[in-house]
Amino acid sequence: SAGRRVVVVDGRVLVPTHGAMRAFAAADGDSDWTTALPDEGGDRVGGPGGTHRQIDTTPRVASGRCFVASLSSVYALGTGAGRPRLRIDVASSVDGLTLLGNTLFVASRLGDGEFLTAFDTATGVERWRVPDRPVPVAADADRLLVARRGSPGEPDADRGRLDARDPADGALLWESEARGPAVAGEPTGIALAGDAVYTAREG
Description:
This protein is an all-beta fold. Helices cover 0% and strands 51% of the residues. It has strands at 7-9, 12-16, 21-25, 31-35, 60-62, 65-70, 73-78, 84-89, 95-100, 103-110, 113-120, 126-131, 135-139, 144-148, 159-165, 172-182, 190-193, 196-199. The strands form 5 sheets. Strands 1-2-3-4 form a 4-stranded antiparallel β-sheet, with no helix packed on it. The radius of gyration is 17 Å and the shape is globular.
């Protein structure tokens, strides 16, 4: 997607492309590794005859792993050689992939419902979930900032109202009427600093 960005970590430049995750040496640009995510069925790059999944998000990196969303799965790849380490399957595309320490926050469909879910990054085990699919947009040790979807037909309904939840258990800390980023795909233009929340928007 247009919102994907490169990430530099441990002397490597991690580049999400349409069909693969690539790593280059930061010092000289030499190719280090390329990993195409396998697809055992369903949507593929190039249609039904394709062989791998597209990458939909900017890599999130922690503890030697980079996490990316691809269609209805989240993958962890080792940053050293690009080997797949973990796969978390959900029931829809992923919005707002956000990483804090050893917890990964994902907005998606699970089973018959729409949820914000926290997963352990080492095991993929679910830690908690809350309904209505608020989209994670930023996090620090004290709060997980989420964008709450507007009602259909409401002005700026595609831009979420900002709330804060406890990263440990998903409990609601506060609600606001402030508008944040668009809630679909990979939200951008928001940051936390101390007690302040900063947002940017066009226009």
